[in-house]
TrEMBL record:
Domain HHH: 190-227
GO MF annotation terms: mRNA binding; structural constituent of ribosome
Cited InterPro entries: HHH_9, Ribos_protein_bS1-like, RNaseH-like_sf, RuvA_2-like, Tex-like_dom_sf, Tex_YqgF
Name this polypeptide is given: S1 motif domain-containing protein
Amino acid sequence: MDAAKSTSKSESFVVALGNGHGSDDCQALIEEVSRKYNVPLDISLVDEAGASVWSVSKGAAQEFPNEAPSSIGAVSIGRRIQDPMNELVKIPPRSLGVGMYQHDLSEKVLEEKLQDAVIDAVAFVGVDVNTASLEILRNVPGLKGKLPDAIIASRPFYSRECLKKVKGLGPKTFENCAGFIHIGNKPDEELDSTRVHPESYILARWLLGELKCNSICTLTQAMIPEKTSEKRIALVDKAARLHNVSRERIENTIDLMMEYRSGKDPRLVLSESKVGVIKRDGSFECNAFPRNLVSDLRAFEKACPLRNIKGTIRNVTDFGIFIDFGGGR
């Protein structure tokens, strides 16, 4: 094992393991090798849906012209740990698996709905216009036709305003896409690093002033009044009156500025919760299926009932729903 020769006691490795057939046996084998060679390993089970489809695609052949499809598929699985969205947008939505009855739907309607879901995901997370792949840019709302290619050819950008110089990107397109893209590396305008839309910059600067903050880079949670406090209500009311905008827009602007300062990925904010807790009735309430229960049936029975485990719906049938909760099969 090469890793065993090169690693030190302070080093560890992450192994991306596809969640397909035989993944439990593979995980057991990797753990055995890890113990044998005393190599710390963090095994991450990754949804491998669509990896084999992309491995034989034109895009994959262009990126890895000298690699076998099996090796390309392994790269795709590994990349899903680093940046899942950037990798998954390359996969045709129907190949991600949405149930055995997906083919009973109109192909056109299914494709449209699935593509809309991909665009919504990209819009929610946002993208760095200087580093985003072509596949990501093609799914940014407002960027159609040859605009993604033109943007890549015009890099680097030092502000959102520079996007207006891209051929074919007019004022309306800029208005539609500006809130979903940002400038990641020290832009000329600090708010360009956030998900705050340019049309809310005046509001954002006013809010920073009211909070006695000279820069968004020095904004802290302690500076912002609690949402239900009188100070917060007075601040939002004053902003709505002076700037003639809705309370929702003001609250959203505050949230986006704090999101930037926290450095948290917006996807993680949605998923944060307690990992597990023993309830008074003896049941186990958790966010993820406990690994120690996967291979120990007696421990699994003792822990039941398990509640509030997050899973992924794999199939919808007339008689029920199949949910993958990360446990054994």
